[in-house]
């Protein structure tokens, strides 16, 4: 803000300086020596923006199905029969290699290995192993790319989730959706470029908070807009009863005039952001009801997504809404589904969680595909880290738990330039360490930006004296999984 | 005289300013970013630089030629000198501004910049000493000036036109003919061009830095003073790989700092080539399918359609004019002439908006009209956009009468028609679009027979028919019970909803599970006027019946005039004491919410008094059971009654059934009839379980009893 104000006031001086130069006064030389930034244009952002996207994008939009709480890879996509054979045996220290533990198992004196309670089958051309909990995902296996070699550094939910969303474990950086909104803008001016949908599962849950969809230091027009499950999907969007649309229009025009006056006086960019947001809200008043109306969806849609898709606030309903928002040009739709934190009661809880998300996730892929949209929409499914190959707490045949595990976990991606029908990366036979093609969270971000036509090293924003990126100073595009 | 004096004095002042500005730019150019206006001035550099060259050479000629004396007309000579110097200064200034723009390799302009600035300074000194009539010093500076003109000019020309521009016609050009992927050879067509561009200038016959030559297979294998360039046993230790991967600031990094660097793709190509045994004459197509080198290299030969559009771009002003809040027009990526257009906002759509696009009909490759209300005639308008590759007509309502007109779109590869009532009689028309690679026809009313006919008509096209309802039965979700409160005084209207409008809702009020043989069909809101458990399920043809949803309703017809507990509840769950039992607020399943009273060490003895002796029908007690939390149904319940005249009489004594395993939390309602007797007082004695049963983890300890409400009717 201080920077912007300074520049704003200098903007006047710059003009004066230039007019004086033409009169032949050499003060420009002196002035530019004293104020080295005089020749700079607004932080260099114009130049950055003008070059975006950096190359032909494969994906135009992203739908991120975030499985909040960290689903276990051992009961989903990382099949480790070794763990079933050695159930109850101790995890060798040579495998653990001093990996730090969470406070929840740090006091545990033994780390008994535990295998999946659920069976696995192989599916698709890639003969990918998928657990019996995900029959619908198994059906679309030829359309997705399973990455079994994700890793992160965080071992607790909040930092890990924040890391996945913003590229840093501490909150205050812009979320990925905000970066894309900043970089690529909205396709549809009548809807926010970045929408957020929340749902709560039946397993042990972890919180989600609005800092996860923050604009951080970017302009606040880029922050995620949360759609709620109530009758008003976007709160405070409706006009009060008795207010005509023309009245609203006139009111906005007057407010805008006042805001422009204020902007000229103070130069605070938040004022222009406010003007834009009022205008968008006005257009959203007609666009949102059009998109969120699911009453005209055919029966086959309900069968695809499951009947829950008609109950606002469920994961299935959010998947359907995500498709509709994405189809209407929303750049980044972020879902969070809570309830994947199975420290105990894993078999019971995970079965419920999987039942809630499996069908609708697969339906979303299928639905995009049958509309010809899958090749331009990138869909991502996954949590913030993995779970341990050993049991947390008492181990029983049909009841066990798994603690947080950052060193390896599985996610899947589909559409938008990602190679379909492949399994990427491999973990050791204990499922503890990655042995092939590791993919760090920064690499994941670099790859997503690449698919959207952005060089992750060139999408920057100058803040507090340095240029920030989503990938900070890291990240490599995972070219092997690109089409 | 005054007039010309004024002219030269302006020129002199200008000259001083130019020197000042140049000095600032020379010293501070690294910190400067140039605004667009000044960028323009910078770009005049190549335009005006020819004036000072010519004028300086002219001045030199006059200066050195004894027959032409500059002193013949000193005023004119001075003006000529000043004009020349001002132009020189302006050229230098423009050059410095131009250099501050991105894209110039620092080392390239470094020399040119300093010789240019030096030239300006020397020429000025030449003028100064000439004016002071110190001719021998002036001659010295004049000589230096001429030398610098030649050097600066040459350096500048090399930057603009390339290194060997002048001599190029004499050199033998080994320009490669473009080859196809099928014929491409690993070294000659992939690696060699990289080496030629970036390495060979220092590693060739005439210049062998580090004794290394890279202009031939044998030289590469021999290597330089550090041994062979390629290590076939440990490819990653090869000198070439190590050198190119060193940080750019490292002395050993190749190409050296200042020279044109390898791109990351070129780096990867070289590394992959060496890792895969550095074959010199292997055909690319003979590399295995999973070869990284092959995958990287093939990109060179596969023409990228997107970067190869031959048509001219539309004017930015045209695109800007056509863009609005409901119609997005943008290049598929910057610098591409190809445009994509998307319409948004059904309510704002008008078919005329398609006609307006005729200004960009030669550039439009991707058109998204999804969910816009179209008429079949509107489809005809699309045939004018001859470059279209992708059309999305999902959910537009067309029946396909004019789809055949799209066959003139030779580039059309993808057509989406999902969610349209495509008429089977228009099948023939759709079948003419043989150029399509992909066709999306989910939910189009085309029956399986028509679809298979279509597949024979379009054998080359991938036809996506989408989700098929294969008769698999899915379970419905349970209906939702909507009621204001679970407790009522006289009666309550309860409505039941289901998100799918067409389902049948079955319900019961007698605490039995509704199914096909035991149900009441829900038609309108139900009126409940006594304690009841409402259980509901949804059924529909083609679906499995839903799980049940249930809700318990309590009638609280009579409130005692006074009531109290003989023994207090446990301190941790004391609520508001006896008041809690008669506040008409049901507790939920959170027993610590304050709406429940918990008893463990004391019995629960409730005394209720009634002023007006009205006939009482029943008393109901509402309990919680949550065995995992040590909360059990009461061990025993006794109901005592006392009329005005009688003593306490035991009316009911019950030992509710106890669970033999941990169950889900649930509420339990026990009803006791009072047979219309006008009791003056009622007493309920409820004992918590003690001890907990053997199967429970707390076996032997006292258990809990939780009660939240007493209803009397």
UniProtKB/TrEMBL annotation, chain A:
Pfam families: DUF1501. It comes from the Bacteria. InterPro entries: Alkaline_phosphatase_core_sf, DUF1501. Signal peptide: none annotated. PANTHER family: BLL7424 PROTEIN, DUF1501 DOMAIN-CONTAINING PROTEIN. This is Sulfatase.
Automatic annotation (TrEMBL), chain B:
Keywords: Heme, Iron, Membrane, Metal-binding, Transmembrane, Transmembrane helix. InterPro entries: Cyt_c-like_dom, Cyt_c-like_dom_sf, Cyt_c_Planctomycete-type, GH29D-like_dom, LRR_dom_sf. The chain crosses the membrane at residues 7-27, 47-64, 76-99, 111-130, 137-157. The keyword Transferase does not apply. Residues 157-278 form the Cytochrome c domain. PANTHER family: CYCLOINULO-OLIGOSACCHARIDE FRUCTANOTRANSFERASE-RELATED (PTHR35889), F-BOX DOMAIN-CONTAINING PROTEIN (PTHR35889:SF3). This is Planctomycete cytochrome C. It comes from Cecembia lonarensis (strain CCUG 58316 / KCTC 22772 / LW9).
